[in-house]
């Protein structure tokens, strides 16, 4: 069973090798990667990984028109031969790590455990906070960040999902979920292995599992969207892959920096992923590029601290520390106000 991943990257050099190693270790065979506007060594790392056969690297210029970089990448990937030859695929970002629950060791094991006829798995986010790290720790992401939002948090944002899907069961790629075939809707399951209803399968706009009972007993998607406070400042400069014009600031931080529960279940996969990372770093070119990238990001942060507004943002981020999960009544009131605004718009 051939499984591939598709992603876009911009200035991800300090983190991308561990991301590749983790997903390679759990059964992803190949990665189609679109890079854009990189100046931290990401492009060079991807070129090297392409030369050894792990990656198909497509440098992507700034998009023209209304579609985002991520959507234009997916449009190109739709006709990529690696996608055509794959059985299953996933579209995930470099801050998202697939977390297989025990006893699964590979994605192939996971897929085999789902009900017969399953075509897609909705892997729900688990938001991870900064774990109290102000500066970037010299640890891998899964080692450094082990504090997360509660699994049953009353926050719709925390219930977004990404998909692992059978390629031939869908007509088109999507950022959170692929587009269904109207002639034959696919069978979707959640992270517990429960079959989702038909109305979910046919609603391509439904990219959130808020309100559904399913959890993550078999798989979840660890979402390290902020990492350390220092990492967050450099991420702010990079922007979001599908909403480049959206500012990443204090609002983004407080909606994601939950350090409420210790969640280190992914650590059981670290030994195998570390072997793959060690193999990648044994390549002299990759090792040097990785080291250079860490230094580049440190310099980038120091440069940012020459800007008074960013100094103030960094200060406010440290004061904010961590967020408190909303109580059910507070979340209901907020959602009611939003619905009221939407209905009157």
What does this structure look like?
The protein is α/β, with parallel strands linked by helices and 345 residues long. It has 13 helices and 13 strands. Strands 1, 2, 3, 4, 5, 6, 8, 11 and 12 form a 9-stranded mixed sheet that branches. Strands 7-13 form a two-stranded antiparallel ribbon. Helix 2 runs antiparallel to helix 11 (284-304). The mean pLDDT is 94.
Summarize the structure.
By secondary structure, the chain is of the alpha/beta class.
Strand content: 15-25%
Structural class: alpha/beta
Separate helix tally: 13
- Percent helix: 25-40%
Low-confidence runs? none
Major sheet size, sense and barrel closure: 9 strands, mixed
Mean pLDDT: 94
The whole-angstrom Rg is 20 Å
- Please state the oligomeric state of the protein chains shown: single chain
State the distance separating the first and last CA atoms.
Answer: 48 Å
SSE run? EHEHEHHEEHEHEEEEEHEHHEHHHH
The strand count comes to 13
Shape: globular
Task: Summarize the topology.
Elements: E1 3-9, H1 13-25, E2 30-35, H2 42-51, E3 55-59, H3 69-77, H4 81-84, E4 88-91, E5 96-100, H5 107-113, E6 120-127, H6 141-144, E7 147-148, E8 161-166, E9 170-172, E10 179-180, E11 188-190, H7 198-201, E12 219-223, H8 229-238, H9 250-254, E13 261-262, H10 270-281, H11 284-304, H12 308-320, H13 328-344
Parallel strand pairs: 1-2, 1-4, 2-3, 6-11, 6-12
Antiparallel strand pairs: 4-8, 5-12, 6-8, 7-13, 9-10
